[in-house]
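Hello again,

I reread your note about wanting to compare the complex against the isolated chains. To keep things tidy I'm splitting this into two emails, and this first one only covers the full assembly. Below are the input lines as submitted, including protein chains and any nucleic acid or small-molecule components. They are followed by the predicted structure of everything together. The single-chain runs will come separately.
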Amino acid sequence: MMDFTPEQIERYSRHILLQDVGVEGQEKISNGKVLVIGAGGLGAPVLLYLAAAGVGVIGVIDGDTVDLSNLQRQVIHFTPDVGKPKVISAKEKIRQINPDVKVIAHHDLFTSENAFELIRDYDFIVDGTDTFPVKFLINDACVIAGKPFSHGGILRFDGQTMTHLPQTACYRCVFHSPPPPNAVPACSQAGVLGAIAGMLGTIQAAEVLKFLTGTGELLADRLLSFNAKTMNFRTVKLHKNRQCPVCGEHPVITELKEAEQTACDLKQR
Amino acid sequence: MAKITLNDEAQEVTLPLSLTELIKANSATPEMVSAQLNGEFVAREQYDAIAIREGDEVDILYFMGGGQSS
Ligand SMILES: [Zn+2]
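Full-complex prediction:
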């Protein structure tokens, strides 16, 4: 048993009161190690809620600095943070929310070179990135290394997310390979309603906490999508695709290659 | 006319209809979606060859990036 201090018991009391979490569940959260890739629209709410929940170790990787146009939705960054590396800004907020959390910040890009090294020590990975090549890279790294992860994507008024566990459908089971460059607009071109990032990111954070505590049914073999204009939520049942290039019967992807497209042109300002 | 279910909603379509035509009729681009027919993923190269039948359940799933800095 982990010895919670009276202060921690009070801090986490609303988790401890929850029948499905309790002291044991909070211990699992406090012993959890989660890597969040991207400290932007999705990463921001994920990081805030995981910090508040007291996840023991939170890793965060992002190569960007805070831009004024980020503040409309990337709620972990504040106006005085403009120009600061996102991971530093995020780390400062996490520290203030919850000093129990150990933060490991990487001001870097997630690449085929560092992927395995980065994910190795974590129990769960969260994809909060915005480019398809990196989403596929995260998928392939996690599938090959046998790591569970949460995929998330947002665009305009829509969001979608799925959770991959070893043996359940992966992102490539659904989307075989990245779309042609520039075929799908990025938020910089198409825009996104700020709160959508919060809706999707908090769903991802909830999945992490469910995973760590072993509570409920994860979005494994299911793809959740919603449209905020209608507020219709839809869950599509998935199962492993036998022809999946990374987890299928005859995988052709057995090692990581550099992202198939190095940068999304639409991202360039 | 044939009754099918597209993304959980009942729809009436005129046969013959290929999966490609169904995707286009729903203002999507075949290269930019993933499709499940009766719970099985269909390879994109087969969209043209798949004939929609009465009672089919089709899911069209869209690529969604977004989230970090864009
Ligand atoms: Zn797969």
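For quick reference: The beta strands of chain A are 33-37, 57-61, 102-106, 124-127, 149-155, 158-164, 222-227, 232-237.

B.
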